[in-house]
Amino acid sequence: MNNKRIAFLGAGNMAEAIISGFVQSGKLNAEQITVTNRSNIERLSELKDKYGIEAVTKDQLDYKTIDIFILAMKPKDIDGVLEDLHEKITADQLLISVLAGISTSYMEDGLNDRQRVIRVMPNTSSMIQESATAVSPGKFVDMDQLKMAKELMNCIGEAYLIDEDMMDIYTGIAGSGPAYFYKLMEHMEEAGHEAGMERELARKIGAQTLYGAAKMIIDQEETPAELRRNITSPNGTTAAGLDALDKFGGGKAIEEAVKSAASRSKELSKLSKEPVKL
């Protein structure tokens, strides 16, 4: 991994989250990482100054020197990017895609014969090396390349190898999941504020509570349902809160949030179901 050169095609929030995680992990040197976009020089300069990486426009990138490309542009731009890459890279160079809804087969059809493509789905917790990241290899990826991709993703948290047909529901759980928890935190903070607590204090208390609950699930053998029952006394405060969640549809809302995000991921896949014409 120490001698691999990595180029990010796209310089948005997800690209920055992964770059931050790579650099902070200490497992990659900033000099190994290049980020590029079409024309936003200001954004490239910002990332270069912040992380010490190389930042160039797309036209300045030396594609032949790159071992791993990470596709992090908007999914709607994929066709143009595939057409461009088809002319500039070889089948031995590895492509790792973080694009929601774009299948490995779709990318393979738009690239060179037997192109190595791996689809991953991290989340923005990459920035603090706490991402839950799915990894799904395309049909031409060998075990060494898959191992290398997992090692890369482990730099930003925990990587999980899944079948690609599970990627949509994974997106609903882990890709979009942080936003659900942030939304929960907003409402917990607001409840504390309405009761007279300072917002910052309510926010910190809620965050520590959420962190502790997540760590219990990771570190203990009990299921979430068992852990919930362990702290729910009949007619107690927790029972009252859970009753309110049921009354106002809190649990159902969470399930529907996951399903809706997964459904949108499927919709994006359908938009790109036709092979790219070169």
Quick tags:
11 helices, single chain, ProC C-terminal domain-like fold, elongated, alpha/beta, 8 strands, Rossmann fold, 278 residues, 2 domains, eight-stranded mixed sheet
Task: Give the secondary structure arrangement, pairings included.
Elements: E1 6-9, H1 13-25, E2 33-37, H2 41-51, E3 54-57, E4 68-71, H3 78-88, E5 94-97, H4 104-109, E6 116-121, E7 131-137, H5 143-154, E8 157-161, H6 167-175, H7 177-194, H8 199-219, H9 224-230, H10 237-247, H11 250-271
Parallel strand pairs: 1-2, 1-4, 2-3, 4-5, 5-6, 7-8
Antiparallel strand pairs: 6-7
Helix pairs in contact: 6-11, 7-8
Describe this structure in a few short sentences.
This protein has 278 residues and is an alpha/beta fold.
Terminal CA distance reads 33 Å
The CATH architecture of the largest domain: 3-Layer(aba) Sandwich
Low-confidence stretches: 274-278
The CATH top-level class label of the largest domain:
Alpha Beta
CATH superfamily of the largest domain: NAD(P)-binding Rossmann-like Domain
Taking the sheet with the most strands, its summary is: 8 strands, mixed
Give the amount of beta strand, in percent.
Answer: 5-15%
Q: What is the CATH third-level topology name of the largest domain? A: Rossmann fold
Strand arrangement, largest sheet? Answer: 3-2-1-4-5-6-7-8
Query: Percent helix among the residues?
Result: 40-55%
- What's the number of helices? 11
Number of E-state strands: 8
Mean pLDDT: 92
The coarse silhouette is elongated
Rg result: 21 Å
Query: What structural class do you assign from the helix and strand content?
Result: alpha/beta
Number of domains: 2
Helix-strand pattern: EHEHEEHEHEEHEHHHHHH
